[in-house]
Amino acid sequence: MEKREQNQRVVITGMGTVNPLGNDVPTTWKRLLAGESGIDHFTRFDVGSFHTQIGGEVKDFDPAQYMEYKEARRTDPFIQYAMAATSQALQQSGLEISNEIADEVGVIVGTGIGGLTTVDNGYQTIREKGPRWVNPFTASMMLPNMAAGMIAIQHKVRGPNHCVVSACATGNTAIGEGWEIIRRGDARAMIVGASEAGLLPFTIAAFDRIQALSRRNDEPKKASRPFDAQRDGFVAGEGAATLILEDLEFAKARGAKILGEVTGYGSSADAYHVTAPAEGGSGAALAMERALKKAGITPEEVDYINAHGTSTPLNDKSETEAIKKVFGEYAYKVPVSSTKSMTGHLLGASGVVEAIVCLLTIQDQMIHPTINYEYPDPDCDLDYVPNTARPAKVKTALSNAFGFGGHNACIVVRAFED
User: Fold this and answer.
1) What are the residue ranges in the chain where pLDDT is below 50?
2) Is 410 designated active site?
């Protein structure tokens, strides 16, 4: 590998996604701008005894479009979603991973909970049939790092490769750490993303036991209502998203179309509570401040904030407080919207989906709405772009992601300027 200067500029050349709104980027963006919800009643298990009976399921997904049928049978859904999103992103980027550059292309694909479908199936098999009947591919199907590993195998990528796990901050952590790898000269390009496929009875019961989920079962499409006074919890979702990051010189040399630039990344820990955010949003504010500092910009230069915006009473209040702490009076002028109002909460995968949203916002100069915002909350008094998409001049966007355990990760995405 040739020696390169550190602090390389890092640009985005490809993006892909599978999520409750659609199995590609154009469909997802069209539905977001239209204010459509991808949330509905669960279809994969009997919900009769559950307090929460709704979620954001991926629909009409065919893994055979992205891998051989035999391979699909040997991979957990979270791996399948990640491989699909990656194939889409690579196709858009036009990046051909030849043997000559394979050592300089890496992968970071994270997950909050990994191959839980496989784990659940394994336990059921042991209880019903005994250990001899457990799928011999179980070990490789359930490991959280296997999405990154399988992507490297499929595309012959030999550079830095690992999985990050930081709960609901995972997606932004993956983007940020991939950004840092390129900036310090350890790769020319990084495939970064995150994936989740954990909509299972066990998972829903676990989140419900801590009263984190919405129980608005009679109105599933109105259940996720970030910053609204009548919010009663988040709506669990699933899916994956991938970005292709490249150092600027590498992207330009191969004639890539540049979609945008990652200019800042900040992370922090609340060091406060396993599920509740720190009082006053102090940890979230620190991550935002660090992202802006690395980007070399002031708060007033941010044109749009894609909020973590989960629709839980504590998170939305805390995030609002954190934004005010960082942005001061300007907090009331910058538009803020929550993608989760339509996708539900994709846990670890949310951050990368929302980074794609930031890119599209910059490209199309349109901000998608926060739907279901009907009853103002005095504790949440910012401009949440309620219910209707809005044209706006957006050059710089900040994306927030905060997770259980007190993990915080924020990234700054900007329009590319040569």
Assistant:
1) 1
2) no
Q: What is the pLDDT of residues 354-370, one digit of tens each?
A: 999 999 999 999 999 99
368 counts as catalytic? no
Q: How far apart are CA 320 and CA 305, in angstroms?
A: 11
Q: How far is CA 244 from CA 146, 276, 300, 373, 386, in A?
A: 19, 33, 28, 34, 31
Q: How many CB atoms lie within 10 A of CB 200?
A: 20
Total domain count, the chain: 2
Q: Is 63 left (phi over 0), alpha (psi -120 to 50) or beta?
A: alpha
With respect to residue 64, please indicate whether it lies within any of the assigned structural domains.
Answer: yes
Q: Which of 41, 51, 155, 168 is catalytic?
A: 168
Q: What does the alpha-carbon distance between residue 86 and residue 97 come to, in Å, rounded to a whole number?
A: 13
Q: Is residue 248 part of a domain?
A: yes
The per-residue pLDDT for range 382-404, each reduced to its tens digit, is 999 999 999 999 999 999 999 99
For the entire predicted model, the pTM comes to: 0.96
Helix (H) or strand (E) holding 367: strand 366-367
- Please state the separation of Cα 404 from the chain's center in Å: 15
Q: Is 407 a catalytic residue?
A: no
> Is 20 within 8 Å of 239 (Cβ atoms)?
yes
Question: What domain range is 102 assigned to?
Answer: 10-253
Q: Which of 155, 345, 368, 407 is catalytic?
A: 345
User: Domain check: are 224 and 370 in the same one?
Assistant: no
Q: Quick check: 72 and 80 in contact, CB under 8 A? A: yes
Catalytic residue among 155, 308, 368, 407: 308
Q: Residues near 68 by Cβ (< 8 Å), separated by ≥ 6? A: none
CB contact set of 378 (below 8 Å; sequence gap of 6+): none
Which two structure tokens, joined as six digits, stand for 142?
């359930």
